Amino acid sequence: MDAIDRIILGELVRDGRLSFRDLAARVRLSPTATAERVRRLTEAGVIGGCHAEINLAALGRPLKAFIDVRLRPGPDHAELEDRLLDLPAVLSGAHVTGRWDYTLTVACRDVAELDELVMALPRDYGVVETDTRLQLRELRGSGVEALCALVESK
């Protein structure tokens, strides 16, 4: 990776929908050369994809929460992971260290749906304990800028 690749990554982190023409103008290369660099970064696994930012409230799921989950000791949890991720409210999950086994990020229609999900975890998924926190507001912007600065400083 050279300085131009780092600038390309920084620009794509800021706006993953940039056209190759607009990206090329920002890095002062031709669109073809820019596209080739993006292709190489993708093939090398540096770029894992570009994703749309979804407004969950506009989709009828304004209540975002984080649920820490502790499971019964037992065998491999791969099947459980798949089942949890199939739940409509579950956006993502992380297998974590410490007291909890997983942290789930969920988006619910309302408190009743969140309550039903929390009640279903021990009943249907072998969960022995949960801790749920509601997201009050999301802090935005600084993480993207910090990542861009990190990429550009390498």
Summary, kept brief:
The protein is an alpha+beta fold. The chain contains 6 helices and 4 strands, in the order αααβαββαβα. Helix content is 44%, strand content 19%.
Topology record:
Blueprint: H1 3-14, H2 20-27, H3 31-43, E1 63-71, H4 78-85, E2 90-95, E3 102-108, H5 111-125, E4 127-134, H6 142-153
Helix pairs in contact: 1-6, 2-3
Walkthrough of the structure:
Helix 1 (3-14) packs antiparallel against helix 6 and helix 2 crosses helix 3. This protein has 154 residues and is α+β, with helices and mostly antiparallel strands. The protein has helices spanning 3-14, 20-27, 31-43, 78-85, 111-125, 142-153; strands at 63-71, 90-95, 102-108, 127-134. It starts with a helix and ends with a helix. Strands 2-3-1-4 form a 4-stranded antiparallel beta sheet, with helices on one face.
Strand line-up across the major sheet: 2-3-1-4
Rg on CA atoms, Å: 20 Å
**Strand content of the residues, in percent?**
15-25%
The number of helices is 6
Poorly predicted runs are: none
Major β-sheet profile: 4 strands, antiparallel
The global form is elongated
What percent of residues adopt helix (DSSP H or I)? Answer: 40-55%
Encode the helix/strand succession as letters.
HHHEHEEHEH
Structural category is: alpha+beta
What is the arithmetic mean of pLDDT? 89
Number of strands: 4
Distance between the termini: 9 Å
